[in-house]
Amino acid sequence: MEQASILWEETVQPGASWSHVLKRGTALRITDIHGGANVGALFYNFECPVERYNMPDTLKAQHIARLTEGFVLYSDMGRVLCSVVADTVGWHDPIGGCSNAALLTAQYGENRYQESRNECHRNGRDSFLVELGKWGLGPRDLGPNMNFFSCVTVSEEGHMEFREGNSAPGSYIELRAEMNVLTVLNTCPHPLDRNPRYDPKPVLLSIRRAAPAGSDDPCRLSRPENGRGFTLTERYFL
Amino acid sequence: MSGIKIVESRLDAADAVYSCVIPAGEPWLHEVRQGQYFRIVDLKGNQAVDTLFYNAHDYADRYSAQDTIREQRNIYLTTGTKLMSSGGTVLLTIVADTCGRHDTLGGACANESNMVRYAIEKRHMHACRSSFLKGIIDWDHGMSKRDITSNINFFMNVPVTPDGRLTFEDGISNPGKYVEMRAEIDVLVAISNCPQLNNPCNAYDPTSVQALIWDGPES
Q: B73 contacts in A (CB within 8 Å)?
């Protein structure tokens, strides 16, 4: 990313949350500083949050069970919330979901703020709910989430396997906002990560201005479905 | 296809306390009490039965596709699957299944997703999420589109390949195949009997299904 075009950069600490209205015409790069990060993510149309990221619509429009460059994140209203305009990882997980308090306690035992201060264990579900709460959203707004930098493969029998070492240090993914997108992130561990230690990783966020998707945009052309998705998104702003 | 497990029920349709035929393209909402058994019969074969479940006493605690597949570490639903809520509650357990595999990643069709998937001119065609909206409006308990989350597609076969592609395969269901669940708490069931005419998964012919409920020993 060209340094000159960056509006600002910010680090999300391990196990922490972040939210922002990513404006149409900007792009968010997420960099896995040390490798092995997981970034749980939810997306909403800021102007009407009942329109939100839809996992099945994203998967079936593009016949995918992984996200990478050239693919897009769909809302439930047939519009493109974000496009993946750059990716050095190759596989980001849309199906594994998020951790919750019971899962973390079973895996690592209790670890509270009282004893551990800001090293306390935080889980994906509660982190999403707290961050959503700041925008007036709640449990009814919590749907299937994305997990950037993580990979879950599926065998022929349907078995789900978390792939260790999916993301190397310095890996990044860049999302171009196609709408004004309320973006809710956390760096809690992936729920299928069997790391014997609670060991979330920080990520660097870089936000820059981005030109709108042209007629030859790779995300628009990657599938005929995406061409229609971009048309419907552009009509929303007419 | 390997790993398909067929488990029959011992319950007799003649003993059911409730039975209803749901025509294609219709919503159906009904409560199933803790301990009751709930069966869906694919009367004509390969019909997609889009289904959502809610804790009957707290609709914010509802079926979660991601929690369900993560808990069993398998994306396919069949006998033994615990249908999990977003709050970590076991809503129902699948106790019999003569189809052997059900999808929960493919979601429900909508006017808007049909426009993306097939053609912008398909906006007018009847779709599941419109049925769900009509169903929850008529149910009249304060639910809204926020409550229509990722569903189960009973009798649908939507495999994920090891290289991360989502595919839509021919159905493995047939006339008379069924799936049966035991309610572990009081649940609200919302079904959209899918009206999709653009997808070969149902041979372009949406058909009726049957819902049955039995009292269990503890219900």
A: 159-160, 192
3-class DSSP state of A226: helix
Size of interface A-B (CB pairs under 8 A): 143
- Give A44's strand partners: A52, A182
Q: How far apart are CA A154 and CA B72, in angstroms?
A: 13
The answer to whether B205 touches B30, Cβ cutoff 8 Å, is: no
Residues 6 or more apart whose Cβ sits within 8 Å of residue B137? none
Cβ distance A64 to B166 less than 8 Å, yes or no, reads yes
SS3 A128: helix
A198 neighbors A108 (Cβ within 8 angstroms): yes
ipTM, two decimals: 0.97
In tens digits, chain A (238 residues) has pLDDT values of 566 689 999 999 999 999 999 999 999 999 999 999 999 999 999 999 999 999 999 999 999 999 999 999 999 999 999 999 999 999 999 999 999 999 999 999 999 999 999 999 999 999 999 999 999 999 999 999 999 999 999 999 999 999 999 999 999 999 999 999 999 999 999 999 999 999 999 999 999 999 999 999 999 999 999 999 999 999 999 9
- Let me know the angle formed at the C-alpha of B1 by B170 and A93, rounded to the nearest 5 degrees: 80
